[in-house]
Amino acid sequence: MGDKITHQDEVLFRQIHPLSFQDGVPGSDRFRPSELDQNRLSVDRSGLTSAMAAHALFVSTGRQSAAVFGLEVQEFESESILCSEDPVLAGGPDPENLAHALADYSAHTAGKQKVVAKRLKRLAVARGCLYQA
Amino acid sequence: MADEEISPDAEHGISLRYVGGRFDGARLPLDVLADLPAFRDLLVAYARQEWLTANTSRKRVPKGFDKSLSFDLTSVRSGSAIPVMQWDRASAQNFLPGFTGELEEIIGASYREIITLIDEASHGRFPNALASEHVRALNKFGSGLRDDERIEFVNMTGADGNVIFLDSRRRKTLITKVRETYVSRYEGTGKLVGIQAVEGLQPSIDVETNVHGVIRIVIDRERVLGEFDGNMHAPVQFDLQVELDNADRYRSIVEVHGVELIDERVVADLDRCRARLSEIGDLLAGWDDGQGSAITKIAISVANTLLRKRPALCSVYKIFPTIGGGVLFEFEANDWDLSLEIMADGGIEIFGFEVDEDGELLPQLLGGISDEALAVLDKSVGNDGR
Fold first, then answer.
1. Torsions phi, psi of A128, nearest 5?
2. Distance, CA of B57 to CA of B53 (rounded, Å)
């Protein structure tokens, strides 16, 4: 993991798959890491990109996203989730993404992560959809 | 078949494994208990046939024969639920003294016949005919099974190496091959199109259904007048056991488990949720950008059961597929933000948190849509969920 993100009010963007987006509301499972993610949730930093640009880069790889929601670093930290820089550099299989970051859920059990994700989703929904395709 | 395991031995008895979400944790719903005497009746039917075949000079089985074949439910083991039945040897000695050895052989042979019947039927091979008492017992055994459930015969494997089991599809095929009709569970919604409450006539309501047209449901006269009279064309939710023919055409109602009026708005919400589940159920593996298992049939079936059991909550559900092949229901109720996650194997978890308060409900792994799961759900939503 890279350096910790220190800007507490920086919003981190999260892409929402179309099938996890119903009537304008995302599923809470999109706010927790899947088993393959090893406790780390992929996000993009608003300090380095916009919601629209983050979405465009995401779908340019063939992946699907219906909407972009966001959470502040301090909102993650209020749930004992630390956020770190994780830039994707050019030359690899994925396109360069210097805004990429990771939210680390490893302080919580898998069960607890589900409840935490629900609280975070609620905060993200309250902030509003930041970009919708 | 595994011959060394084929006889129900005196020590371990006969074990049937009920597989399905509502059987998790060694639960055996009361409406399924009727299977056990039905299975015993089937065994007795075969035993009578075995005895008469072995004693060709006799036209009838000896007095006390049926009573000597009584079984006790001695335990319900877990995994999902495994009722264990044991032959009451002492009782047999009372009714048919000196015959217990022969009876034990007959029970073993009869059990083999039942297993063979079901195994053969699963490969499309059927007897030309069965005696009426066999068919009657067979028509009761497993009649409470839902589409995603089955009864496995513990330690009994077929020629293909797979455990021998009976599910609703195999039941239907088997029963309709040896007779014209079979009994099946039918849950759904319809529209009230008629009532009958005249003194001297059988009180009933007529419900128009999507699948079987208008069906007449017999209920108490007081209910006809008190609940249904004056509500013509209102939506009705029902849970029935019906007799269908071999082309799945409705013949009659065998038992009414439940019937009640529901709100028009509830029906619209129910339809919306069912359509969403149908969409989710069609997803192929890899639906989530290359990840994401196909949503399992059992998860969809359990999800549909949830909709049927608590239709009033359909207005608040958001429904999502999960990467693991399950279904996630999310909703707010009673100042709680709740999730009900149905796993790929049909198990369910309920979790959530109290809005604007500190309360939280960590995931509780429950069986399928069991009474316990519904009780947790009802407590969480605070208004009995109905």
1. 105, 160
2. 9
Residues of B with CB below 8 A from A119's CB? 337, 353
Pick the closest to residue B353 from A128, A79, A74 (CA basis): A79
Is A119 part of the contact surface with chain B (CB cutoff 8 Å)? yes
Residues of B in contact with A62 (CB under 8 A): 289
Does A36 contact B291 at a Cβ distance shorter than 8 Å? yes
Q: Where are the domains of chain A?
A: 11-132
A111/B363 touch (CB, cutoff 8 Å), yes or no = yes
Q: Hey, is the C-beta of A127 within 8 angstroms of any chain B C-beta?
A: no
Q: Which residues of B touch A (CB under 8 A)?
A: 276, 280, 283, 287-289, 291, 318-324, 328, 330, 337, 339, 341, 349, 351-353, 355, 360-363
Q: Which residue of B has its CA nearest to A118?
A: B352
Mean pLDDT by 10 residues, chain A (133 residues): 89 97 96 92 96 96 95 96 94 91 96 97 97 92
| Nearest chain A CA: its distance from B29 CA (Å) | 29
Task: Tell me the chain A residues in contact with residue B324 when contact means C-beta distances shorter than 8 Å.
Answer: 35
Q: Peptide bond preceding B7: is omega within 30 degrees of 0, i.e. cis?
A: no
Answer whether A84's CB lies under 8 Å from A3's CB. yes
Decide: pTM greater than 0.90. no
Distance from the Cα of A94 to chain B's closest Cα (Å) equals: 14
Taking an 8 Å cut-off on Cβ atoms, the answer to whether A114 and B339 are in contact is yes
| Dist. CA A22–CA A32, nearest whole Å | 18
Asked if A115's CB is within 8 angstroms of B361's CB, the reply is yes
SS (H, E, C) chain A: CCCECCCCCCEEEEEECHHHEECCEECHHHHCCCHHHCCEEEEEECCCCCHHHHHHHHHCCCCCCCEEEEEEHHHHHCCCCEEEECCECCCCCCCCECCEEEEECCCCCHHHHHHHHHHHHHHHHHHCCCEEC
**Alpha-carbon span B77 to B28, nearest angstrom:** 10
ipTM for the complex shown: 0.93
pLDDT for B260-285, tens place per residue? Answer: 998 888 888 988 999 999 999 999 99
Write the residue in B288, B289, B339 that is nearest to A118 by C-beta.
B339
The verdict on A23 touching B (C-beta cutoff 8 Å) is yes
